[in-house]
Specification:
Elements lengths: L2 H22 L10 H17 L2 H5 L2 E8 L10 H11 L5 E11 L3 E11 L5 E12 L4 E10 L5
Parallel strand pairs: 1-5
Antiparallel strand pairs: 2-3, 3-4, 4-5
Length: about 160
C-alpha cells in the first residue's frame, strides 16, 4: 500500500472512529481527564523506553493500534510488529523530551501532538514531529495511534 493510500485509510479510520464516538456518546460514560493527565502519558511511555524492555513499551499501546515510527518505513499494526520495532529502537538507548505540544481531550479519547527530541545513547539528538491518540479502555489510557517523523528541514 503506498503512502497516499495509507494516509487516506488512516484518515478515514480516524473520522469513522470520531463519528462512532459521537454516536455512542450518550450510551457510554465519559471519563473525566485533564490536559496534564494526558501529557503525563508521554512520561509513562518514555519511562518504559528507559527500561530497555520492548514489552513494557508495547504495553502502552491498545491491541488494535497503529505505530508509524520515525526510523522504520513499515507501519506497525500488531503487538508483534511493535515489539519487533522496539527491539531495534531500544538498542539506540533513546530518551525523549517534549519541546512543544498541544493536547485535546474528548469523551474517552485524547490527542497529544507536537515536537519532541530524542537523545540517543551515543549523544546524537533527533528532533521529530509526533502525534499520539489515546483511548480510555475502562481502566487505563492506551495509545491507539502513534505517528513520529523526523523534521524535514535542517536548521
Amino acid at each position: 500500500m503506498n503512502a497516499r493510500a495509507l494516509t487516506a485509510r488512516f484518515a478515514l479510520a480516524a473520522i469513522t472512529a470520531g463519528l462512532s464516538a459521537g454516536a455512542h456518546a450518550h450510551s457510554e460514560e465519559c471519563r473525566a481527564t485533564t490536559d496534564a493527565e494526558i501529557a503525563a502519558l508521554f512520561d509513562r511511555w518514555n519511562a518504559a523506553l528507559a527500561t530497555g524492555e520492548p514489552a513494557k513499551v508495547v504495553a502502552n499501546y491498545a491491541t488494535e493500534s497503529i505505530l508509524l515510527p520515525t526510523v522504520s518505513n513499515k507501519p506497525r499494526l500488531t503487538p508483534a510488529d511493535k515489539l519487533d520495532y522496539f527491539e531495534m529502537f531500544l538498542k539506540l538507548k533513546p530518551q525523549g523530551k517534549i519541546d512543544m505540544r498541544t493536547v485535546q481531550v474528548g469523551c474517552n479519547s485524547a490527542l497529544d501532538a507536537g515536537i519532541y527530541t530524542f537523545t540517543l545513547g551515543d549523544g546524537r539528538k533527533v528532533q521529530a514531529r509526533y502525534t499520539y491518540t489515546y483511548k480510555w479502555d475502562g481502566s487505563q489510557w492506551l495509545i491507539t495511534s502513534h505517528h513520529s517523523s523526523a523534521m524535514p528541514e535542517k536548521s
